[in-house]
Design brief:
There is one protein chain. The C terminus is likely disordered. Helix content is 79%, strand content 0%. The radius of gyration is 29 Å and the shape is elongated. The longest helix is centred in the last third of the chain and has 49 residues. Helix 4 crosses helix 7, helix 8 packs antiparallel against helix 10 and helix 10 runs parallel beside helix 12. It is built from 12 helices and no strands. The chain has 2 domains: 110 residues, Winged helix-like DNA-binding domain superfamily/Winged helix DNA-binding domain (Arc Repressor Mutant, subunit A); 156 residues, no CATH class.
């Protein structure tokens, strides 16, 4: 970027407010200028950076973080040579804060985007769906449950399974687990959750419901059988979600811990021979 392309003081102020997420109207109010003037400054800023939108500008600044051109962009073409010499090495906390805040937001968004687009999350979701539909098939085969009774709960069931797989896949991605570990962790976690939810309903949910009825918090006579069944299904799905996610994540942590222990034990003989 040449001397003529450096930002002016006013353009720099507009960039700072833009990085804080302010609209053109808010920028105009903060600087005491008109919206048209803000648009004029933005047009010049976009031209200097060769971009056409706010997002592109933020990405350009984020990619230039820590490079010499960022410092150059803070220089003003309207400053005198004496003032530039005096302030050349003087840090500006307000500008530094604005850049750190904007770059931090960009980094988090890009990191989350990479996590969501990774194969780890997709692997976890596929494994959870497989385990869930296998449970539905077993329920129909051995539980003698009709398809008509299952269909109304199929959409929330798919959402539940996707959340389990998503959570396990995201955990595996963050911990550095392999796709195979994530697949089996999500598969086992989802499968185990489907088999323990009924015992947990009998051990936890049913006693709590009886206690609420005894305390007068719930009037069982006023609740129809359909509503009671719906509440039971919701309780089962919540338990399935909690147990499936917890077990899947726990298996991933155990795998990572064992891998680290194996790596440490593998290095011990090497150090002992030296």
């Amino acid at each position: 970027m040449t001397q003529n392309n450096r930002l002016s003081n006013r353009e720099w102020e507009v960039v700072e407010l833009l990085l804080q997420g302010k609209s053109n109207k808010l920028i105009a109010g903060a600087l005491g200028i008109s919206v048209r003037t803000v648009e004029f400054h933005l047009k010049n800023i976009y031209t200097k950076f060769q971009v056409s939108s706010r997002v592109e500008l933020i990405l350009i600044l984020g990619n230039a973080t820590g490079k010499a051109e960022i410092k150059e962009l803070g220089s003003s073409t309207v400053d005198s040579s004496v003032k530039s010499a005096e302030n050349k090495d003087t840090p500006n906390p307000r500008k530094d804060w604005a850049f750190r805040d904007a770059i931090s937001i960009i980094g988090k968004e890009l990191q989350m985007k990479n996590l969501l687009n990774s194969k780890h999350v997709l692997t976890g979701v596929i494994a959870a769906l497989m385990a869930g539909f296998l449970w539905v098939a077993l329920l129909r085969r051995f539980g003698h449950v009709s398809l008509e009774a299952i269909l109304p709960w199929l959409p929330p069931l798919i959402v539940l399974l996707a959340i389990i797989g998503f959570s396990v896949g995201l955990t595996g991605k963050r911990n550095g687990n392999s796709l195979l570990n994530i697949f089996f962790s999500a598969l086992i976690g989802t499968g185990l959750g489907s088999f323990v939810m009924l015992p947990l309903v009998a051990i936890v949910v049913y006693p709590l419901a009886k206690l609420a009825e005894w305390l007068g918090l719930v009037n069982r006579a006023a609740i129809s059988n359909d509503i009671a069944s719906a509440l039971l299904y919701v309780a089962m799905m919540v338990i399935w979600l909690i147990v499936g996610t917890a077990v899947g994540a726990m298996l991933l942590f155990i795998t990572v811990k064992r891998q680290k222990q194996a790596d440490i034990q593998g290095h011990v003989p090497e150090h002992g021979l030296q």
